[in-house]
Amino acid sequence: MADDHDKVAFRLATILQKLNQGEILVEKELAEEFNVSVRTIQRDLRERFVFLPLEQSKAGYQLDTTFLGRFEVEDINRFARFASIQDLFGKIDQDFFQKYLTDSITIKTFDAEPITPKLKEFDGIHQAIQQHCYLSFIYQKVNRQEGKGANFIVAPYKLVNKNGVWYLIAVHDEKIKVFSVARIRKVQIEQSQFKPNKAISKRINSTDSIYFEGTLDEVMLKIHANVAVYFKRRSLLPNQEIVKELLDGTLIVMCRNVHEQEILPLVRYWLPNIEIIAPDGLKKQLTQQLEQYLSNPICNDPITIQ
């Protein structure tokens, strides 16, 4: 699913760049260029780019001349990413982009958790972030039968979509904490304001992770050559950095400031084509988990198919 959205975002970014440069776009030519149907291109131009002042003529589609050259590369990429995931927010229109196209929202993956049922809470959180106001809410327990939940007053910093789930990253009791938006209720914007800490903002914005406590400074991994292409194509690990490619195609990859719960599940998924080089403690932890799994009687019981 992520690959499909990546292709859509790339197509939309390319189309936006063409429009920004003053090109006149023809639906059929775009369809051939991106190997999609004319109907798909029509949807791109008429629905996904409804926020743009496009002029349509017999020659094709063109951006209003007063807007030419206004978009920077970052603007184009951001527009494309948002337009390609409109199901996350529902209908996209001019008001949506004016309201939500800000640095207070980050989407780390393209899998969709519909935000419509929590739109009221989402709006309140977003407003508090923009105005640097403290935010109070009730945070529901996983099992609602366990009680109403806990009350929180936090300094909200960012809304993040990670693996399809929306999170609020905020400071509470002088610690960076992460809250699932789906479990947030009774949002109240406080009158008192806070001054964002630049160091905290930088830390939040510089990582793919949503963990900020108990993280590992550095994890080194070896990616075997037969799967290396997938890790070269795009980052499959949090904060992934390819340190070296060996002659046989093996990759040495480093991940900085990550939590073990982000690394270990991915390593288990890619076994036996991935190895933990360092730290030793994480490598031992993985080995213990695998030994525990293999020693489980359930794993050793034969399966009878009738």
Characteristic key phrases:
six-stranded mixed β-sheet; single chain; 11 helices; 306 residues; four-stranded antiparallel β-sheet; alpha+beta
Assign an overall shape: globular
The separation of the N and C termini measures 35 Å
Backbone CA Rg = 23 Å
- Mean pLDDT metric: 81
In percent terms, what proportion of residues is strand? Answer: 25-35%
Number of extended strands: 12
Give the biggest beta sheet.
6 strands, mixed
Q: Helical region count?
A: 11
What does this structure look like?
The chain is α+β, with helices and mostly antiparallel strands. The protein is built from eleven helices and twelve strands. The strands form three sheets. Strands 3, 4, 5, 6, 7 and 8 form a six-stranded mixed β-sheet that branches. The protein has a four-stranded antiparallel β-sheet with strand order 10-11-9-12. Helix 1 (2-20) crosses helix 4.
Give the helices and strands, then pairings.
Blueprint: H1 2-20, H2 27-34, H3 38-48, E1 54-56, E2 61-63, H4 73-83, H5 94-100, E3 105-107, H6 119-131, E4 133-139, E5 150-162, E6 165-172, E7 175-180, E8 184-193, H7 198-205, E9 216-223, H8 228-233, E10 240-245, E11 251-258, H9 260-270, E12 274-278, H10 280-294, H11 297-300
Parallel strand pairs: 3-5
Antiparallel strand pairs: 1-2, 4-5, 4-8, 5-6, 6-7, 9-11, 9-12, 10-11
Helix pairs in contact: 1-4, 2-3
